[in-house]
Structures are given as C-alpha cells and as structure tokens.
Amino acid sequence: MQNSIPEKSIVVLVSGNGSNLQAIIDSISQQKIHGKVVAVFANKSDAYGLVRAEKANIPAIFINHKEFASREEYDNEMMQRIDKYAPDLIVLAGFMRILTPQFVAHYQGKMLNIHPSLLPKYKGLDTHQRAIDAGDVEHGASVHFVTAELDGGPVVLQSKVPIFASQNADELAQRVQQQERQMYPLVISWFCADRLKMLNNHAELDGQILDEMGYAVN
User: Fold this and answer.
1) Is residue 99 exposed (0-12), middle (13-18) or buried (19+ Cβ within 10 Å)?
2) In the list 13, 76, 198, 208, which could disulfide-bond 95, CB 3.0-4.6 Å?
3) pLDDT in tens, 89-140
C-alpha cells in the first residue's frame, strides 16, 4: 500500500540541537517513513539542527528573526521560503517561536509539533519542573497538530514516563526526550502513509477520530 502513495516532502523547523530532526532523518534512511526531508529552517544561526541537515545533504536555511520588524513579517518571509519546497508536511522540532495565526492557517492540517508534557497539562515552557512541583507521578510528551491555540491542537499520540522522587528536571527531560525520538517518527510515518489526517479540528487515524489524549500505546 505504502509504495503506491507518493513520497511526502517534509520541511522541519528547528531552533536548537535537533535531536528529533536526527531521529526523523534516521527513520527515513531506515525506510520507516515514506517521505523525504527537503529542507531544514532555523531561526538561530548556531542551531545544531542546521549542522545535522548539512551532514545529511539537506538544504539548511537560517532566517534571523531579529532582522524583521514584526512577527508577522518574519513568518511571511518563512512562508515564502518554505513554499518554494512545496512541502506536504511541516514538522516543528524544537522551534522556539510562537507562530502567527496567518502562518498556522497557511499550513492548517499539515503541521505537527511535539510538546514535552501530557497535554492539555503544562502548555508552554518549563514543563518538567512544573510536573515535579505539582507532585505528578507521571509525565511525558505529546505529538499534536498545530492550531492557533498554543500547544492546543488535537493530540495524535502521547507517551508517559514515571516521575521518580529522586529525579530533577534535567534527568526527567532526558527520559522524556528518549520517548520523543521514538514517537515523533512514528506519527510522521502515519501522516506520510496517508493514515493520519486532521479534520474538523480532530485527529483521525485510519478513519477513526482519536480522543483528547490521542492514540494510546502505553
């Protein structure tokens, strides 16, 4: 079935290390994702994700947000540059900027993000410390479609990790990131196989509407 589906073009947006980008590149090379990363964009010149892209012979593009007078102007430039690659899917992999409604609407239904919490808990930053401070017994990550609401789009998949009493936020973050590198390529593979869609603000997998917490695997 997968071979009859055209290979999807993927654009990845990063701001930092790009470990999830690397997991995607590796999964594609292992033929687990029926797609190709056609470009990587970053808003920081020192983002190591750009180096990862160059090593994989993927166009690596830095656009400095500080050179634009407004968020809208920056996002408009991003859209123009991204659209030259005609992407089927936009993947946010640690892209640390709040996107404008115009940008989100332009790629509605074909933009995914991974967030380090069990959404709808702990939208925004410092999620690991917030989970510890709240006395939670479990934490994790969520892959979701991007909508205009920050970290509020329909969840596709979540993965949980227990919080141990002796753990600090950095140690918890490392364990969550291990889960992220497994789950993000999996969700991307579903999208590239035409199994995953966003319709009427719901995530659908194989024609079935997923519930608020997404598809449960653990």
Assistant:
1) buried
2) 13
3) 999 999 999 999 999 999 999 999 999 999 999 999 999 999 999 999 999 9
The token duo for 86 is: 């005609």
Q: Does the active-site annotation cover 115?
A: yes
- The 10s digit of each residue's pLDDT in 170-215 is 999 999 999 999 999 999 999 999 999 999 999 999 999 999 889 9
The candidate with the shortest Cα–Cα distance to 189, out of 156, 153, 213, 151, is: 156
The whole-number pLDDT of residue 3 equals 59
Q: CB-side exposure of 63: number of CA atoms within 13 Å?
A: 21
Q: Tally the C-alpha atoms within 13 A of residue 207's C-alpha that lie toward its C-beta.
A: 0
Query: Coil, helix or strand for 202?
Result: strand
Provide the H-helix boundaries in 71-167.
71-83, 101-106, 127-133
The helix (H) or strand (E) run that includes residue 170 is: helix 169-192
Q: Which CATH architecture has domain 2-121+139-160+177-216?
A: 3-Layer(aba) Sandwich (3.40)
Q: Judging by beta carbons within 10 Å of its beta carbon (0-12, 13-18, 19+), is residue 97 exposed, middle or buried? A: middle
pTM assigned to the model? 0.95
